[in-house]
Design a protein that fits this description.
Elements: E1 2-12, E2 18-28, E3 32-36, H1 43-50, E4 58-63, E5 66-67, H2 72-78, E6 79-82, H3 94-104, H4 109-122, H5 138-150, E7 156-160, H6 168-185, E8 188-193, H7 196-202, E9 205-210, E10 213-218, H8 220-227, E11 230-236, H9 239-250, E12 256-262, E13 265-270, H10 273-286, E14 291-297, H11 301-309
Parallel strand pairs: 3-8, 3-9, 6-7, 7-8
Antiparallel strand pairs: 1-2, 1-4, 4-5, 9-10, 11-13, 11-14, 12-13
Helix pairs in contact: 3-4, 4-5, 8-11
Length: 324
């Protein structure tokens, strides 16, 4: 059974601002699904529609078998949500906030106390549990908001860039608990992220989004394998002057399947990348094109993104910042 479904889902704020421009999704129950894309790509707007916080312009969405426009109240009872902006009461303690969340969802009192303590341990806030939230740092508030989203044992959880601003140790802790809930209890996670490593390590399946559209879909392994070549990257000395010429001459490289521009670089998808390096250097030298570095990597999700869009996932896209 599908936990999350979208069919031609759209959100247009104006004719020119098409935050989400017709996407299709089918996320099975028990899957850890990642929505990968840069700021402004439409990830947060999609989450807001699926969690019933924003009404679609058109199209269809379904969460846990319920229509997002016809049953918003029922959906909100069933899901957990941690958005980018944490909605916390600064005058409560961390423990009080989690226990209130449990009581609002009518959990038994004993379970409320035990679960609040367990989640405070998971997000490394047990020592600060009885301090007012207003004394928490931004990262601590982020972790507390995540714990609140999980307090009522939801079967479907939406996490909108949950580890942004967290230190590496906190991020690893969150990843481990998400995996545990997914594997042990079958919780479905819909995770938006800009972090390539997060999507690569956590997701069973992922969609790459850019300018309001899904540009690639599959498991991390499938997407990286789809490139089918090694990746040679040339850092140019004067890219604004020499990039077009470098692309032109490097297309003659034996084994190259594609040559693309990416900001200050030229990216070459080539079979037998280790053997191709010397020829890349020779071709550039003969064309008198100055470069700083030539590097070889195996395909990454960033390479998939570059191949689909022409820029790195961490670079600003041409899409305006999301309105929602």
């Amino acid at each position: 059974m599908s936990a999350i479904v979208a069919s031609d889902l759209k959100k247009h704020f104006t004719e020119d601002i098409r935050a989400v421009d017709g996407i299709d999704l089918d996320v099975p129950e028990g899957q850890l699904f990642a929505f990968l894309g840069p700021n402004g790509s439409g990830k947060t707007t999609t989450v807001r529609m699926l969690t019933t916080l924003l009404r679609p312009t058109s199209g269809y969405g379904e969460v846990d078998g319920l229509d997002i426009t016809r049953a918003p109240g029922e959906i909100r009872q069933r899901i957990g949500v941690a958005l980018q902006e944490a909605g916390l009461d600064d005058n409560q303690t961390g423990r009080e906030l989690l226990e209130l969340q449990g009581h609002l969802y009518r959990l038994p009192a004993d379970e409320v106390r035990k679960r609040a303590r367990r989640l405070l341990e998971v997000v490394d806030l047990l020592d600060a549990a009885d301090r007012n939230v207003k004394s928490y740092s931004g990262g601590m508030k982020r972790r507390l908001d995540l714990a609140a989203a999980l307090m009522h044992n939801p079967r479907v959880v939406f996490l909108d860039e949950p580890t942004t601003g967290l230190d590496p140790i906190s991020r690893e802790t969150i990843w481990a608990y998400v995996r545990e809930l997914n594997e042990r209890e079958g919780v479905t996670f819909f995770l938006t992220t800009q972090y390539l490593e997060e999507a690569d390590r956590l997701a069973h399946d992922l969609a790459i989004m850019n300018l309001g559209k899904i540009v690639a879909r599959g498991s991390p392994q499938e997407l990286k394998a789809s490139i089918g070549t090694d990746v040679v990257t040339v850092q140019l000395d004067e890219p604004h002057v020499t990039r077009d010429r470098a692309i032109e001459v490097l297309r003659a490289l034996d084994g190259a399947t594609e040559v693309r521009a990416a900001t200050n670089e030229v990216v070459i998808y080539v079979k037998g990348g280790s053997r191709a390096i010397a020829n890349v250097v020779r071709i550039l030298d003969e064309a008198q094109i100055a470069f700083d570095e030539v590097s070889l990597t195996h395909p990454t999700l960033d390479d998939v993104f570059i191949q689909k869009t022409g820029h790195h996932i961490t670079e600003d896209s041409d899409q305006p910042e999301e309105v929602a």
